[in-house]
Amino acid sequence: MTTSTLRAGGFWERSPRLSVAASWSIVTAIAAALLAIVVADPPKSDLAASVITLGVIGVWRWSWALLHAVRGAAYRYIVFPRLRRAAAGAPKPTHLYVLVTSYRMPAELNAAVYRRLLEEIRDFGVGATIVACITDPADAVTIQGAFARVGDLPEGTSLVFSPQRGRGKRDAMARALTFFTETRPGPGAFAVLMDGDSVLGRGALARSCSILAAGGDLGAVTTENIPWVKGSVPVREWYRLRMAQRHGQMCSMSLSRKLLVLTGRFSVFRAEIAVDPEFILALESDTLRHWRLGDIRMVTGDDKSTWYVTLKRGWNTLYVPDAVIHPIEELPAGNFLAASMALMVRWYGNMIRNTGRAIALGPRRVGFFPWLCLVDQRVSMWTTLIGPTSAVCLALTRDGSVIAAYLLWVLASRGIACLAIFGVAGRGHPLFPLILYYSQVVGAVVKIYMSFNPDRQRWTRQSAAGGAAIDANALVSGLLHGLFTLLFVAVVALVVLI
């Protein structure tokens, strides 16, 4: 069964129940209703000072977003085409070392992922040592079947199985990289780290490797992700918007030749980096030192660990927007709010835990603009909540019609932001403005929570977790979280109500 057959059959992407026309109707109706409320009962004129105060903060935030959009467009349409032309004559790697980690994947998905990987290796024409980290003996049978069906593989291509020992993804990856080390990779070899639920697009391997080979200062590259989603239209568009935002951010950061993550879905490293003992140790037992909680063992966020080691060692990194992979996405069990928040806890927890030590490297090592972006990640989780907090304060104490005016502003401003995203990523949907606002507000709440609870870690589909239950540290974390939240609300209320 091919990847196209699987997708057409709805295994990864169900037929939408909500058409684009219906989505436009919903958004238009909401906008019309809000506009009617504002026209019928406009906010009082004495709120002008508060609006101006919020406007100043908004100009700063939107100027930052505009800067990213301009930088992203400059990289995607001006700088990267030059890089692609320069990479046309780049030498191929001497050998590929491919690490694929899977956790209880369906047989048809395993077959599709490995078939596409092997086809890419065959078309690229470079021998590869593939380590498949599996959880079930049946996986080996499925993968061997894919290996047998893809003929004419380059000389030196081999497949090795590494059963996972129930100690998590990090342990499996460290064991595989240790095996690569024992084979003594030669100069010019590359290492591919990828997840077992990522289907490679046509030419993804060759395009990634050529960019990495052409840049002598590059330590690693990562690629565009276009997800194949199982779920309803809102779920599908939530993932698509997230990846479209990622595309713009990655392009923007690539203008500085420093990414803020090397995505675990699929990234290519110089083999000398991937087999370095420090790199392997970071995967196996990465630990952060927290001023209050002591040593925090990293459970999730393996891609943040590999990124940090690569950054720390002074290598540059790039995004390859014309190399596409298709991650298979499905929300964890539960309703949309609970499931999406569970994912945000993992994603943003990884971000919070790692930005501190990256900021500590300083702008000279990290690069001035990337360093500012890391600092902004710590600030923006609070500034994002100034708008809704201010609107609620004004509505409760001055004029309830402020809520309708604020929501109308949200719809208009997020609509403009989504147009900018469309300009860089070429993806859009009528629901994007609503989903964007949801992700911003709920994401900010989750980031703030994780900044006070950095020891809370959990895979969404695995049992491995970090962080204690209710103990003294948890109580202190909750107390600090509550106090800072109250202080934030008090300051915002003071500013807008004076």
Short description:
The protein has 498 residues and is an alpha/beta fold.
Please give a structural write-up.
Helix 3 packs across helix 8 (233-254) and helix 16 (402-425) crosses helix 17 (432-452). This protein has a domain at 84-337: Spore Coat Polysaccharide Biosynthesis Protein SpsA, Chain A (Alpha-Beta Complex), CATH 3.90.550. The chain has helices spanning 3-8, 20-40, 48-86, 107-124, 137-149, 169-182, 204-214, 233-254, 271-274, 277-285, 302-312, 336-360, 363-366, 368-383, 386-397, 402-425, 432-452, 472-497; strands spanning 96-101, 128-134, 158-163, 190-195, 198-200, 218-225, 228-230, 266-270, 287-290, 294-297, 316-330, 457-458, 465-466. Mean pLDDT is 88; it is low at 1-6 and 8-12. Helix 5 links the parallel strand 2 (128-134) and strand 3 (158-163). It is 59% helix and 14% strand. 42% of the residues are buried. The protein is α/β, with parallel strands linked by helices. The longest helix is centred in the first third of the chain and has 39 residues, at 48-86. It has 18 helices and 13 strands. Strands 1, 2, 3, 4, 5, 6, 7, 8 and 11 form a 9-stranded mixed sheet that branches.
Structural class by sheet pairing and helices: alpha/beta
Could you please say which CATH topology of the domain at 84-337 applies here? Spore Coat Polysaccharide Biosynthesis Protein SpsA, Chain A
Q: What integer is the average pLDDT?
A: 88
Shape: globular
CATH class (first level) name of the domain at 84-337: Alpha Beta
> Which residue ranges are poorly predicted, with pLDDT under 50 across at least 5 consecutive positions?
1-6, 8-12
Give the N-terminus to C-terminus distance in angstroms. 66 Å
**Total strand count, please?**
13
Give the full name of the CATH homologous superfamily of the domain at 84-337: Spore Coat Polysaccharide Biosynthesis Protein SpsA, Chain A
The radius of gyration computed from the alpha-carbon positions, rounded to a whole number of angstroms, is 24 Å
